[in-house]
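Minutes, project check-in

Agenda point 3 was the complex the collaborators sent over. CS summarized: two entities, 322 residues total, and the question is how they sit relative to each other. Sequences were read into the notes so everyone works from the same version.
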Amino acid sequence: MNELGLLENYLLVGAVLFGLGLIGFFSRRNMIVMFLCAEMMLQGVSVSLVAWGRYHNNWDGQALVIFILTVSDW
Amino acid sequence: MTLDELVRNPLAWATVLLAVGVWLLLPRGTNRGWWLGLALSLAALGLFASRMPVIGDWASTGTFGLLAAVTVVAALFTVTMRNPVYCAIWFALSLLGTAGLFMLQGAQFLGVATIVVYAGAILVTFLFVLMLANSEGHAFYDRLSWEAPLSAATGSLLIGILSFALVGIFNPKNSEYARIPAVEADRAAEILAPEHMAHLGGSLFGTHLLAVELAGTLLLVALVGCVAIVAEARVRKGRRSGRAGGER
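CS then shared the predicted structure for the full assembly.
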C-alpha cells in the first residue's frame, strides 16, 4: 500500500473534521451542540495522530489518542 | 504564488464554495437556500477529495473513500442541523465512520473504543439530556447562529490552508519532496502486528506510564469535584427549605 498517500489522505480528512468542528463551535448557540463540535475537532486530531503513528511505525500516536479519549470523556 | 495561480487552483475555489455552502446550511432563522448550500458544500468537499492521491488497489481506495465520505458528510450535518437531537445522531454516524477509518489503519482497539465510549455512553447520555430538558420543542437559539458567515469563512479558510499545505508538500514535483523521510520499516511486525493489544498496552504502560497515572488522577479529581458540587447543592437546598443541611 502507498503509505505516503495513505498519510496524506488521513491528514486531509482530519483537517476537514477539525475545520467543520471549528465552524460549529464558533457559530452554534446550543451548549450540547458546541460540545459535540469540540469532540469533532478532537476526532480530527485523533485521525491525524493515528495516521502519523502508522506512517512512522510507532505506537505513540495511538497511545495519545487513548489519552484524548480519557480527557474528552471525563 | 501569484493571483493567477490562486485563481486556477481548485483548492481556493473549494475553500470559497465551502464557506458559502456552510453559511447557507447553518441555521439563520430561515430555510431558504438550504439545498443550494448542501450542493455547494458537497461540491467543495468533492473538490477537496479530487486532490487526494490514490492509495493502492481499487478495494482499499474505495473503502477509504466510502468511510471518509460518510465521516465528513455526517460531520457537516452535525454542525448544521437545527434540531440538537439530529445533531447527536449525525455525530454518531460520523463517529462510526471515524471508527472505520481507525480500523482501516490497523488501530482496532481505538475503533472499538470510539464506538463503545463515544457512541455507546456519551452520545446516549446526551440524547437523554436533550429529551428530558428540551421536550417542549425547538428552542429559539437552535434556529439562529452566532456570526454564521464569519465562522464559516474562518473554518473554511483553515481547511483550505491545511489542505493547500498538505497537497503542496506531498506533491512529487515539490523540490523538498525528496526530503520527506520514506519510512520503509516492516509495519506487519510492529504497528500492524497480530498481537495489537499487547503492543499498544506495552507502549501505554511503558513509555507513557507517568501520563497514565496523571490521567487517573485527573479522573479522580473530576469524581471528587462532582461529589463536592452535588453535596453543596444539597446543603443549599436543605437550608432553603428550613431543614438542617446535609442530613440525608
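Noted in discussion: Chain B is about 70% helix and 0% strand.
Follow-up: revisit at the next meeting once the mutant set is ready.
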